[in-house]
Amino acid sequence: MKHLIYSLNNIWTIVIFLAFVIVGLLLIFPLYNIFVASFLDNETGVFTLQNYTNILGRRYYRTAIYNSVIVGLSSMVGALIIGIPLAFFTTRYNIKGKSLISTLAILALVSPPFIGAYAWITMLGSNGWLRLGLESMGISMPTIYGPLGIILVFSLKFYPFVFLLTAGAIRTINVSLEEAAESLGCRPFSNFMRVTLPIIFPAVSTGALLAFVLSLADFGTPSIIGRNFRVLSTLAYNLFTSEMGGNPGLASTVSILLILVSLIFVYIQRRLIRKKDYGSDMLRRPEVKQLSRVSSIPVHALCYLIVFLSSLPSLVVIYNSFRKTSGPVFKSGFGLDSYRRIINDVPDAIFNSFVFSISAVLMIVALGTLIGYTVARKPSILTGFLDSLLMIPYIVPGVVLGLGFIVSFNSKPVVLVGTATIIILVIFVRRLPYSVRSSVSILKQISLGVEEAAISLGASPAKTFLKVTLPLMMPGVFAGAMMAFITAINELSSSIILYVGGTVTMPVRIYLSVLDGEFGTAAALSSILLAATGVAVFAIIHITESDEGVFL
User: Fold this and answer.
1) Do the Cβ atoms of 259 and 400 come closer than 8 Å?
2) What does residue 289 show for φ and ψ, rounded to 5 degrees?
3) From CA 536, how far away is CA 520, in angstroms rounded?
4) Is 8 a residue whose pLDDT tops 60?
5) How many CB atoms lie within 10 A of CB 50?
6) How many CB atoms lie within 10 A of CB 133?
7) Which of 16, 161, 476, 532 sits in a 20 to 30 Å window from 487, CA-based?
């Protein structure tokens, strides 16, 4: 009995209990309701398998599943083709401006993909300036619309996952293994493919998995440039919006299939890693080599071409935001027409984005720091299970979770649909893992002996955390907060489902402006988002001393 009372009074027991309640209410409960809704008839509400029969039995819907997998796999391959060479060259050779390359890659990673889609439309759309310019020189170019455009945008958007993870792995492998293979006559390319790549496979496959899952989940890009090319994320949104008056059974079914496809590939990746032992003794780290004069130019050109292409959409967006406009049409010359228009016409979108994001981030930091501490310092079955649950937001698409919130919180006693609260809460639960992971990472660098010394001197566990541990955790806490802010202010997938007129955000307004052909308005709002993202990235790099791992 005394032990039970002590446990109930223990602050960390309360934190664990509170975390399970919040995760259960805001994550598990909505997903459970989505799962249940997929088995209910839209009109009668009775149990049925008809929704799954309709989705899997009709070619229209099966095509969306096939398209999603093809886009995801193709984007993953594109990210690998771009990310692995960039990681290898920047870690093994003395590349000038290496920090700039990493920074530009990070900016490409954290900027919203739908902005890239919009920028490529202005370049390679039906009347895109780059496409028309090339055609004037006799070079025929296809438009950006369709699956190839989606794959291009996703490849240039998500390759930094592969780049950052692969670079980190290459820096820490045992170079003696490569030297042994070289001494046996293995040529450089064969050495990399047969020795280096198998060793770093866990990191490479994790980057590839992230590229696949995020390509599968993204809503904005295929909706903007996909035209009639159906994927699961846009199909779920379209089915939901066409069934606003009833139980969105088909949309829920598509959502479950979307999650299932992601889980299948997560399982495949885990199985591939478990099949082999990738560990090795760290005898000697690789040395950074100097490139020869012959190879220096093409290698530098390749590295800078990659980051230039991934940064080009942001540059185009900023450029377009300062062009003069006449309604939706760009004119020659430069001015602040687009910025005046958004300040006069859509100030609420700017205000809402910052208020919703900051509100969610404050909640994320408060709870995420405490959860991170319990996961790192109080290992148990419960904290391990909680840590696993917090991986779910990485897999579940925003459209799916947004739909789950509507199904769950659209009737008494809790009616949140149409309010700002529902958007803040969905951002909170989707971005909570950033703060948790960042806190866990920083705690690995803080000796447990520091806390034990404070407790031995009479400080309570709560006081030790507040006075000793928390100040030491602040760099990691701040980095997690900034990453949460970056992803929160750029959130589109869930907010497009949840917004009403008074709760529109910048990403939603940009998306609607692009669909309406208001490219000047979209460019100005996108530039504000990019500026906020850039400031946050600069703050993270400054605080963490250029530790790229914090962005993963």
Assistant:
1) yes
2) -100, 160
3) 25
4) no
5) 16
6) 12
7) 16
Can you name the residues that pair with 176 across neighbouring β-strands?
Answer: none
Cα torsion angle, 219, 112, 498, 327, sign: negative
CB count, 10 Å around CB of 142? 10
* Burial environment of residue 179 by CB neighbours within 10 A (0 to 12, 13 to 18, 19 or more): middle
CB of 470 closer than 8 Å to CB of 372: no
Residue 415 phi/psi, 5° resolution? -115, 105
Beta bridge mates, 330: 325
Residue 415 neighbours by CB distance under 10 Å: 11
Q: Which residue has the tokens 């005046």?
A: 340
pTM: 0.88
Q: Is the dihedral of CA 391, 396, 398, 402 positive or negative?
A: negative
Over residues 179-202, the mean pLDDT reads: 83
Amino acid at 203: A
Lowest mean pLDDT among 91-100, 199-208, 281-290, 516-525: 281-290
**Structure tokens belonging to residue 82:** 């771009």
Instruction: Output phi, psi for 187, to 5 deg.
Output: -75, 160
6 versus 406: which is more confidently predicted?
Answer: 406
Q: Please give the radius of gyration of the chain, using alpha carbons only, rounded to the nearest integer.
A: 25
